[in-house]
Amino acid sequence: MNGNRTGLRVAVSLCAACGVNTLSAHHSVAGFFNPDELIEIEGVVTGTLWRNPHTEFEVEVTEPSGESTMWRVETGAISVLRARGLDREFLHEGDQVKVYGLESLRGKNEIFAYNLLLSSGAEVLLTVRSARYFTRSGAGELLASVYDEETEAAARRDADGIFRVWSTNLDEIPHAGARMFHGNYPMTEEAEAKRLEWDAGDPTLLGCTEWNMPYLMFNPLPMEFVRKGEDILLRFEEDDNERLIYMNSDAANASGANSLLGHSTGHWDDDSLVVETDSLEPNVLDVHGTPFSSSIQLIERFTPSEDGSRLDYRLQVTDPETFTEPFEVERYWIWRPEIAVHRYACAEEQRLP
Questions:
Q1: Is residue 256 part of a domain?
Q2: Does residue 44 lie in a domain region?
Q3: Both 331 and 185 in a single domain?
Q4: Which domain holds residue 164?
Q5: How many domains, the chain?
């Protein structure tokens, strides 16, 4: 297949009407689309299906020969569009558009779209990995972001230390969460062998997946610290996850069972929130499939900057069954007063204003 499909006529039709499998939505494109093969198509929009974790379209491609081929177009989540200030209907039936993205690894007629060029000449960045493509030479502008002024005003009024909405800096590629879990850890031979067996293209990874700690801290969507009595609730937009952090260090794990998010206790060290987590179910640490055992223990440190614009994060991981020694990774978030933590509602069709 050619790396550039410019000139093809594409008709995008409503996925619901075409019976696109809802299991095709997933949190990572690893194992399903080829990061080394980027293609470009051009066509006419006839409908959209907006949802998390990924928006989908079905595409009819008319080759120069006149033969038509059906394609599936997958792209970023509504939550990503919302964080970019694009929580509105910017596509309409009949619009002429260009699409740029990754070719399928599965031999199917499908593309994961990074960029969209509207008929107005405005470019839309669709994912957390998107950078300017159509307008990179200075011809044209990005679609303007629009945020709710009341949301921002309330956030600035109520912000208190760590208690505010934090989000990944989407202008960085790769983003801070992706850089944090880099895969280079001091692993045992057995753990390394197990990681080599992990299949990023396993069909069980498709659909609405459950997140676990500490992998959850990788995700790029907004999160918010909220007081809950004497404890702290950490709310994530990603899959509507919530972590309850007990601020009484003697708080026992009531069930005594391991879980995906584990049991967390916290304390203050000046302005830093220090959180210790154990009682985790064995799972994977990152997108590389790095395993960990039920012996894993986590120590997190959340430190807001003096002006409240940035939240630095340091994570210490200890698991003698998987790693030969403890190690630390880091990332950061930025304060985004103009956005809020919204309901994720995975796989539910949603409407843009």
A1: yes
A2: yes
A3: yes
A4: 151-335
A5: 2
Whether the CB-CB separation of 262 and 280 falls below 8 Å is answered with yes
The rounded distance, in Å, linking the Cα atoms of 170 and 235 is 19
For 108-146, the pLDDT digits (tens) are 888 899 999 998 999 999 999 999 999 998 888 999 999
Residue with more model confidence, 48 or 266 = 266
In this structure, the strands spanning 110-117 and 96-104 are antiparallel
* Residue in this structure with the two tokens 């989540």, named with its chain if needed: 77
Where does 6-45 show beta strands of DSSP type E?
9-13, 33-45
Residue 210, pLDDT score? 86
- The token pair at 299 is 């120590």
Count how many residues are written for the chain.
353
- Is the residue at 346 inside a domain? no
Q: Average pLDDT of 220-235?
A: 97
Burial code of 114-152, b = ≥16 C-beta within 10 A, e = fewer? bbbbbeeebbbbbbbbbeebbeeeeebebbeeebeeeee
Instruction: Show Cβ contacts of residue 347 under 8 Å, excluding neighbours closer than 6 positions.
Output: 22, 25, 51, 52, 53, 207, 208
Residue 137 lies in a domain: no
The verdict on 156 and 120 lying in the same domain is no
